[in-house]
Predict the structure.
Amino acid sequence: MMAVALSALLSLAAPEIAIVPQPVALKRLTGTFSLEPSTQVVVDAKNADLARMLRSYLSPSTGYAFETGAKRGKNEIEFAIGEATGLGAEGYRLDVSPERIRIEAAQPAGAFYAIQTLRQLLPAANFRRAKVGGVRWTVPAVAIEDRPRFGWRGAMMDVSRHFMPKETVLKFIDLMALHKLNSLHFHLTDDQGWRIEIKRYPRLTEIGSQRDSSMAGHYSEKRYDNKPHGGFYSQDDLREIVAYASARHIQVVPEIEMPGHAQAAIAAYPELGNTGEPLRVGIDWGVYENVFNVEESTIQFLQNVLTEVLDIFPSRFIHIGGDEVPKTQWKKSSRAQARMKELGLKNEEELQSWFIKRMDQFLDTKGRRLIGWDEILEGGLAEGATVMSWRGMDGGIKAAKSGHDVVMAPTSHTYFDFYQSRLRRFEPVAIGGFTPIEKVYAFEPIPTELTASEAKHVLGAQFQLWAEYIPTPKHLEYMAFPRGAALAEVVWSPAEQRNPDDFFARLPRHLERLKVLDVNFRELDGPGPDPVGTWSPQKVTADFATHEWDVTGAMKADGDYKVLFQYTGGAHRLDIAWAELVVDGVVQDRDEHAGRTGAEDRDNEYRLALKSRKATSKIILRARIRADGGTDSRGEVYVYPAR
């Protein structure tokens, strides 16, 4: 069981050198380098920013100035930019001896990543932002040669569903830099909020950035908090974020959703919609039918928006969404149908493709590249488009085989709004799913279906922080880390060197650094117990029926146990009438109360006492269950000691 393996690893002492992500090559040498008040930095004038960045990291905790000076051969940190070969734009060599630290890189980005590695060679206390007394600042002597596996190493932050303060974004950028991630995908607009100031269209933020309530639970519950929520970034805020990220060699890729996920924009400017009816900014999570119309005036509106976006964000890629676009309104709209006829299009999928191609052509004239979710494949892919594959890997495979670039972002391994434990009741409410850190670390961005030449179209991968159920900065950190550290190693380190035992041995020391940085990471406790059984549409009925699972292996000793019924998918929830424990054919205990598990859970845990267990006993869990409203329900059953 993975949980057992992980707990065993956590009992081990962390290795002396615990760098995350793991470098390509690391050799431990004899001795250490001591940071002293007289330690100076050697760097040429055009790369002075590297010295400033180094000081910003090391001076607060050490109290040392680290002045810039001429090369003297000892007690120095030397940067040699442009001298490294064979490492690419982001690779580096870091040589530490008792006399000096030398950083070689072809480009400043590589030297910056060497600094991140250097920080991790020092005691965790060096991450404090104030002077730390009583610490001897020594760096183990090493020879490191390192470069990333992928050019796109990213994280997506959704600030539309829940707005995050600028300071939170800046802190997140710092954490990305520490993990050598280089792409912040900034999801700025959606049905539930428009977060970017567009000077030409002020109502986008005056109206579109504010909603009067938010869904308080899962979609099926239809509960609301009745609290206003809003916020947006001024263009000056965004320029500050972009500059801060750029100094840390991170591109900020803005996402402006179209043609779907548009309700906040249509609420501000109803003429952009298909019905002309006034709308409120979305308060439900999920997909709305209100999408942009396909009039030339709307195309021009959105291209005007993109013009201001391009002025703020210098990134090569601009994300236009393109996902989850209901075609209902286009099918009902006489104008949309007339537009299809004018354009010679056969169906609404081709109409969506035409819409995306218009944006692709516009961005191409501005020297930029369009990127969108894998639905942009439907109806024909725009010539210069890059695909972000989220509905599994199939969209990415199809795009790569047709010669298009791909960023892998499948729900299965990279959706960090999913639960981190099988025992959901002990976790903050999440959107669903189950993505433990072990699964993240096992992710392989290059599908086996691709040839070597096709695989070159896979730019990299990223994790997603969709924020329907991430309302606060601390919650954001909890969902991001340490899973983000695992994904960072997936996209940086060579695939053949990835080793889960080694990673989890290094991780506790890395978590010490995150603790010093005041990161609200999730503690390592494993993914929870394996399920003892399941239910599925093939087994469950619409009427209550009794089901059995053999739980002998899960109940190894007398005591109180909890039984959890946990929905994992399907169209209908599961209702539970009772659960009982049968030992050697005799009912030993029963917990009888109405429970349910589905989009929401209510009283879906049962407590049962095991007594007088014999070594030869056969223990059966029996429960009376039904799928409410239909049989399409599936889930898992867990048994674990009561806490």
